[in-house]
Amino acid sequence: MMTGLCCVCPVQVQGDYTVELTFPSISIDAPSILSRGFGDGEIMMLSQRQFDEVGVEGFDLEPAGTGSYQYGGRTPGQNIWFEKAAQPHWRGENPDFQEVELRWVREDLTRLAALLTGEIHLAALSRELQLEAGRRGMQPAAAGVPTNYLSLFLGRLYFTDGDPAYDPSVPWASPTTGKLVRQAMNQAIDRQEMLQHVLKGDGELMYNTAYHPVLGNGYNPQWEEDWDALYGYAPEAAKELMAQAGFTPDEPMPFTSYNYFSADEPETAVMLEALINYWEPIGIDVTLLDSEWGTVRKEYRAKEDFIKAGGWGNVITMRSLTTRLRVWSFAATGNGGGYETNLQDGNFVKYQQLETVDREEIDRLIREIGDDRFYNFADVPFFWFRLTIMFNPDVVESWTFPGTASSKTSHWDLLKAAQ
């Protein structure tokens, strides 16, 4: 039996295999948050005895859990590996491979070379290099559903009343011309061309970041009707909007794109590099700054000056829109991110105050936020797509993974060895 504490709600042990969680308000996204997949996390079953005996430091050295693989070791910044557990897993999993090693390799070409030479057997590659790997005999393994999306988020859009971190001198956050800049940034981009360049056509346009019709509540079809007029490719109109905001190609607006590598997000770096070709002609001087995702996340959550200089691309898994409601609300999490408004905070509070699951009211609250984000150009939305990994068929026969777990690639026990 394991006991423990939950940071958001009390936990009562009801028996050897049952715990009861009591939420302070309705939380209809709790099943997705607590499950193994659908984007936001999972309940990890850990050993209370280990924590009692060795504490967090001991757990960090040799974590004990219930997976079909057990922790083997790691070299910070380079790799981490796992070994097949000595005992059968209670779910009946029986992995084909005795060991799985994950390596962090920043350069796309280096990952391709390592895959082709047999140094590694699976690799996350940009779509262009996926084609090259395919020509060399490598095979693709794609997520079960198209549940990853690609967006660029802008720092410093802190529009809640009285936020001391708000800086009206940030061009895209200016109370007078910031909206013009944000619209120009969107209209300068030829997304159809970019879809071919970044994803080789393997994706679909996303009209509003995180919103998809399949999710049901909150989606507004009017966004599709208004898309061309507000977001559609119009470089001359974008150039005029930038001029109205005081920026031209001769006197451009500086903008830093924080460029980082994440093992299962090769599309992010390619997207950021492509934006230079669209933005510089309208008066945006783009600087790519190599960084780490942990640094970017820490800085935007803390609202530090570092994030004031620009924005960051990110590949995110599809999540329930009630989860988005919570994540975007600074009142809920204390780290809302780039775009924060009174409406987002207020609608989350209204959601929390619901005494019953009122689907129509929840739909209205989420749609209001979607309208606010869409018509105020909260970010730069791009595409929905399937995460795809290339593998060596001499070593791996196949791999099935949903693409919606916290790390996007998951279920290592389902890696099947070539016979």
Index terms:
3 domains, alpha+beta, 21% strand, 6-stranded mixed sheet, 18 strands, 3-stranded antiparallel sheet, single chain, D-Maltodextrin-Binding Protein, domain 2, Dipeptide-binding Protein, domain 3, disordered N terminus, 14 helices, 419 residues
Task: Characterize the structure shown.
With 419 residues, this protein is α+β, with helices and mostly antiparallel strands. The chain is built from 14 helices and 18 strands. The chain has a 6-stranded mixed β-sheet. A 3-stranded antiparallel β-sheet has the order 3-4-5, with no helix packed on it. A hairpin with a 3-residue loop joins strand 3 (69-75) and strand 4 (79-84). The chain is globular. Mean pLDDT is 87; it is low at 1-7.
The biggest sheet amounts to: 6 strands, mixed
Strand content: 15-25%
Structural class, judged by helices and strands?
Answer: alpha+beta
Rounded to an integer in angstroms, the radius of gyration calculated over CA atoms is 23 Å
Query: Distance N terminus to C terminus?
Result: 40 Å
Question: How is the CATH topology of the largest domain named?
Answer: Dipeptide-binding Protein, domain 3
CATH architecture of the largest domain: Roll
Strand order of the largest sheet: 10-15-8-13-11-12
Number of helices: 14
Shape: globular
Number of structural domains: 3
Proportion in helices: 25-40%
Mean pLDDT: 87
CATH superfamily of the largest domain: Dipeptide-binding Protein, Domain 3
Number of strand elements = 18
CATH class of the largest domain: Alpha Beta
Low-confidence stretches: 1-7
